[in-house]
Amino acid sequence: MKMKKIILSLFMLVSFTAFSQSSLSVQPDSHYYSVPGETCTAHFDVTNTSDKDVSVIVTKYQSPEDTIMSTFCWGITCYGPDTDVSPNAVVIPAGESFDGFSGYLKDMPEESAFVINYCFALENDSLDKVCTDVTFTSIEDLSVHELSVNYEVYPNPVKDVLHIDYNTSTPAEFSIYDMLGNRVYDDVLTSSMSLNLSSFEPGIYFYTLRVQGKEKEVQKLVITH
Known about the structure:
Blueprint: H1 2-20, E1 24-26, E2 32-33, E3 40-48, E4 54-61, E5 70-74, E6 77-79, E7 90-92, E8 97-105, E9 113-122, E10 125-137, H2 144-147, E11 151-154, E12 161-166, E13 172-177, E14 183-189, E15 193-196, E16 203-211, E17 214-223
């Protein structure tokens, strides 16, 4: 039931993204980790998917209940905790990615996790935007570094054969779910493999990777024939 709720939530997100047709895209990690007392840093690219240069600003949304200090940098300018909207825009050329965004949470408390929402929008069109929740945590069980997982799933979209490069000594459970949250494939990864999906109906699926009983992430998979 939990997985079905996750899949349905992702379906709503995918549907919203599909209809929004933003000129921008982002792909942050599932979470960002730091030891307690240190600064937790999130860094990811912002991509201009359009065929025109765009001028982009950043808006930060933080729960008023969170007392932790959050700051961010956009381009060459870094802003203090009281700044929620970057007054300076950054131009991203057509079809290119920009690596000049970083979010920071200072003095992470022990065993804590905070979610900050960042929206990247065109300076002259606030409706053309992409938003993402970013999780900052000091909980070791959520740490990507602790799991030390090195893998890649490609191509996506996939026509018939899906390749999974898995270069980690710890076995992982790889599962594929349909849009209703039904598990349609399940296997244990101990090395790289190729999976024939020619018998699957075309459409949107989701795959998960579990290592040591912990779910690392849920990602969309598009199957075409």
